Automatic annotation (TrEMBL):
Protein name: FAD/NAD(P)-binding domain-containing protein
Source taxon at top rank: Eukaryota
Domain FAD/NAD(P)-binding: 11-282
Keyword Membrane tagged: no
Species name: Lactuca sativa
Function summary: Putative FAD-dependent oxidoreductase.
Length: 361
């Protein structure tokens, strides 16, 4: 006999197996009343903040790139892009239709073009070869990705000439000016040349390693890495029944329970949402845990009135600077060097993230 309030397993479909979607699925799997399906464009979850280390040390990616089947054993996993949502069904580019009682959108950013883990590992090997065989390296973009890559290369390959070009007036614009300046000084000390207020026109670059900037400067480099942010994973939603729930920046508007505006049974979590806070992985994980709890309440017969409400996270940032150092900013307190580095830079939270997914660190 079914337990009170529980008639049959509810079908939950989660779209996006990134930081938020992977933890949500792992949490749902512990709950026997859910019948969930994960749809992700690739076969694996990747700890995004370990990407730059994997470029200087490709074997690092063996732990930070994790097949979905490794931590979701026996679960229903579909490797395909979702491309439609209509009448409580999700369609995928490979032509499948998956019905749901509850849907969770977690498609934060467009994923990597590599679909399998071996492909991804080979990509890191190729990046590493590119770094090793170049004397001069151009990094385009001075957000966290560009800064962390410049720092990884400067620490592991101190003889390489690294140039970082950023179109903004300061590095890491999401932290305060004091923090930006400390990172600029750190990179300069490590002999990274930082050019601010300019962008690189890749269409005018030539095969001889010449790159033109927006101010007409010429930069010579043996190779380059484009470290500008990946597009938000919401363009496909413009063709679905959720199109009116997107704001002008292409993010899904959600209430404090993460329910998508206009829908009772559709949630969104992670970077795809319009929650007013920094778009950070540790916050995306918090969203996942709130929605897991709310789904549990709904399935146990709640009318939604007692669902957990989320309060946007406080602004905390840790930017790793190579293997030992980092910049930490909490509210207006900024610290740089080995002490904040002890929090993140050695293992980049890979062991911690693996443990959250029930795997050996
Ligand atoms: C280099 C880098 C370093 C970072 N460092 C930190 C850090 O130190 N600390 C921190 O807290 N945060 C950090 N972040 C931010 C953090 O990674 C993001 O906030 C987090 O990944 C957001 O999680 P998400 O699940 O919303 O989206 P994502 O992790 O981007 O996952 C989205 C998933 O959806 C899939 N997808 C997209 N479209 C579709 C579709 N149509 N159909 C099916 N699947 C789809 C993608 O393949 C992907 O698997 C960093 C980000 C980057 C890029």
């Amino acid at each position: 006999m079914a337990e009170p309030g529980v008639d049959k397993k509810k079908r939950v479909v989660v779209i996006g197996g990134g930081v938020a979607g992977s933890l949500l699925c792992k949490t749902l799997q512990k709950h026997r009343h859910f019948d969930f399906t994960l749809i992700d464009s690739k076969e694996y979850f990747e700890v995004t903040w370990a990407r730059l280390r994997s470029m200087v040390e490709p074997s690092f990616a063996k732990r930070s790139v994790i097949n979905h089947h490794e931590y979701l054993q026996g679960a229903s996993i579909i490797t395909s892009d979702a491309n439609g949502i209509e009448d409580n069904e999700v369609s995928t580019t490979e032509g499948r239709l998956i019905s749901y009682d509850y849907l969770v959108i977690a498609t934060g950013h467009m994923g990597s073009k590599c679909v399998t883990k071996p492909e991804k590992l080979r990509e890191y090997e190729a990046d590493n070869e590119k770094i090793k065989s170049s004397e001069s390296i151009l990094i385009i973009g001075g957000g966290p990705t560009g800064v962390e890559l410049a720092a990884e290369i400067a620490v592991d390959f101190p003889t390489k000439k690294v140039k970082l070009v950023h179109k903004g007036s300061r590095l890491l614009e999401f932290i305060d000016e004091k923090g930006s300046k400390k990172v600029l000084d750190w990179l300069t000390l490590k002999k990274v040349e930082v050019i601010l207020g300019q962008s690189v026109d890749l269409t005018s670059s030539s095969d001889d390693g010449t790159y033109k900037t927006s101010e007409g400067e010429t930069i010579m480099a043996d190779c380059y890495f484009k470290c500008t942010s990946d597009p938000i994973g919401s363009s496909w939603l413009k063709e679905t029944s959720l199109k009116d729930s997107l704001n002008d920046s292409g993010r899904l508007m959600v209430d404090a329970n993460f329910r998508v505006k206009g829908f009772e049974n559709i949630f969104a979590i992670g970077d795809i949402t319009d929650v007013a806070e920094l778009k950070q992985g540790y916050l995306a994980q918090k969203h996942a845990l709130v929605v897991a709890k709310n789904l549990e309440l709904l399935i146990n017969g709640s009318d939604g009135g007692n669902m957990v409400k989320y309060t946007p996270g406080s602004p905390t940032a840790i930017v790793s600077l190579g293997r030992r150092e980092a910049l930490l900013q909490v509210w207006c307190v900024t610290s740089i060097g080995r002490v904040p580095g002890m929090l993140k830079s050695k293992d980049l939270f890979v062991g911690k993230t693996r443990k959250q997914l029930g795997l050996k660190p």
